[in-house]
Design a protein that fits this description.
about 230 residues; alpha+beta; 60s Ribosomal Protein L30, Chain: A
Amino acid sequence: MTRPHLLPNLTAAGLVLVLLSACASHGLEPEAPPPRTETSQWNDRVHVLSHPDEVLLAPHAEGLSAAQTQALDGLVGRWMSAEAREIVVSAPIGGTGGEIAGRMAVAARQHLISMGAPPASVRVTGYDAAGAPGAPLKVGFLRYTAEVPQCGGWENITATRNNTAYENFGCAVTANMAAQVANPEDLLSPRNETPIDSGRRATVLDKYRKGEVTSSAKDEQSNGVVSKAVN
């Protein structure tokens, strides 16, 4: 039989255990994601699709033909216009004429670089030709397009008694941004940072230590004088 004077102590101890268990169970629950703003709710409604833009080059023992060189020139132009990130030269592996395809892959890469493609942006790889005779050399890049949401349906814009944003709010901004971006691939991931100009940095720091002006010299084109038209 429990003594009467122990009841308050047991009651207090039980209350502490209940509170501790409640705290422990609350700490194991995952945190709820922050509520989405009216404009961010449209971010996942832009779909970025990719499709290859490539040319197929038949292997030639003598190297690239005039027609193949012209095809590569057109490919480089489209690559620069699309502001794509890299060009992939894929040589067949496992088929006949592997050595010829390898030499053509090197020649194709050198030609692309000579046409203005940065060496770091031209990658040579191989693909399984499954023993197919005369498997072509594949040269191309991925072209990305963005599918934007269809905006509209503002409902009744005079019904503001609930003081809430309309469901269509933010759609036009998202659609315009996705439609205007030069390369929709940038919507998927950011580009790599370009290397710093170490020479310019050293020059600026040296002038700073000497107490000199660190800005570039002003040229005549930035003096604000209006040029006179030639009659």
